[in-house]
Amino acid sequence: MTDAAATPAPEPTLERGRTAPLDPAEHARIFARAVALFNGVRYWHAHEAWETLWRAADDRDRDFYQGLIQLAAGLLHLQRRNLKGARNKLREGLERLRPYQPAHHGVFVNELIGEAGRLLDDLEAGYLPYLIPPVIRFTETETADFSR
Question: Does pLDDT of 9 surpass 60?
Fold first, then answer.
């Protein structure tokens, strides 16, 4: 007879493409780096960093990270003058981010949506927008009340 306590519990299985949750300090480091890359107009690299967070995120935050990833992809397409790809990814990213307004994880989501939305409006009207890159700004606290 075997001792049940000596048998290790099986590892929980993750859905395909998902990773185990990150240590909070590691999460904060990757998130800050991704924002700095995005604000530095390095959209591909920001996309890659946010993908790490997206894979490890719980269900409440997955669309937030996917929205950021899609915005970065849309802006990369715009830099490369792939207007159809830019429109599609910006539209998808904005849709995913809207539920996180006005702020989430300390990010002014509503401001980011406004800036990216203006670019999308120009693209949908047939204009090639002058790319003044959107910038992600942080609130002073994640618990601030922006409902007024």
Answer: no
